[in-house]
Specification:
There is one protein chain. α1 packs antiparallel against α4. The protein is of the alpha+beta class. It is 17% helix and 42% strand. The strands form 2 sheets. The protein has an 8-stranded mixed sheet, covered by helices on one side. Strands 10-11-12-9-13-16-15-14 form an 8-stranded mixed sheet.
């Protein structure tokens, strides 16, 4: 489960790079009940999403040439510079060098050795989002990769994660559950899964992370996705002991999952 104490190695923030900020704000407002709060400033195009008055994510204009619209997930670290060094030692790439954001904190963005993109946040005054693990907020993070063993080596070394493997039902392969270092398994916050290369076409063959958002009714959320210009890649499906979920794309093809937990 994800909590807002943001222990090192746990997800603490996420933001979406979108080609059309207004359209993205309208879409996620309809699907997840988010309210969009634009940032102030002449050159600012972006802002915050809130649910029940609490910050749940960020939104900004996609400006990187050739980049696809996608969610970026940030993991909490105690020292972003040390993390950058660890990424480089482990064969990863620094996409955005460590940057100070005033009193709020410091951030950096990376690619793992196979190209999966992620980010870290060294908290200052701001530790991260204000609502998690509730309907309309981040409930899980997930990596699709072509090499699970290599991903475990990299992320385990860089972020200190522990992994526990479970078999997917119906012969669907192995799913590796992720827990931050030093925390019990009930604090696991995500998973990674090895998939065939053709299943990574969304990111041009590279691994990719996506967020899982909690919802009260998966089918109703899927209906909102399609009604508002998005699409559904898989599902809705029932996962035993997990709940009912669907993998979705927003109108700009940024991927995310909606999950109604079992018993919720």
């Amino acid at each position: 489960m994800i909590t807002t104490d943001f222990a090192p190695g746990s997800p603490c923030w996420l933001d979406l790079g979108a080609p059309d900020v207004g359209a993205a704000a309208a879409f996620y407002g309809a699907v997840l009940g988010w309210e969009y709060e634009p940032m102030e400033g002449e050159d600012m195009e972006g802002g915050m999403f809130r649910k029940d008055g609490k910050i749940v994510a960020g939104l900004g204009k996609l400006t990187e040439e050739g980049a696809r619209s996608a969610w970026m997930i940030y993991y909490s670290v105690t020292d972003a510079d040390a993390t950058t060094q660890a990424v480089e030692r482990a064969g990863g790439t620094v996409r955005v060098a460590t940057m100070d954001l005033g009193e709020w904190g410091r951030m950096a963005q990376y690619s793992d050795p196979l190209g999966g993109q992620f980010a870290v946040w060294e908290p200052g005054k701001d530790s991260g989002v204000e609502l998690v693990d509730e309907p309309g907020s981040l409930a899980w993070t997930e990596l699709y990769t072509s090499d699970a063993a290599a991903a475990k080596d990299f992320y385990g070394g860089v972020l200190g994660w522990r992994f526990s493997d479970t078999r997917m039902p119906g012969g669907g392969g192995t799913y590796s559950l992720i827990t931050p270092a030093g925390l019990p398994e009930e604090r696991m916050h995500g998973g990674l899964m090895e998939v065939p290369a053709q299943n990574l076409a969304l990111a041009g063959g590279r691994p990719y992370w996506h967020p899982v958002f909690a919802v009260t009714d998966c089918d109703a959320a899927v209906a909102k996705v399609t009604e508002n210009g998005g699409s559904v890649r898989t599902g809705p499906d029932d996962a035993e002991g997990v709940g009912r979920l669907a993998v979705c794309l927003d109108p700009s093809n940024a991927d995310f999952v909606v999950l109604a937990r079992a018993g919720s």
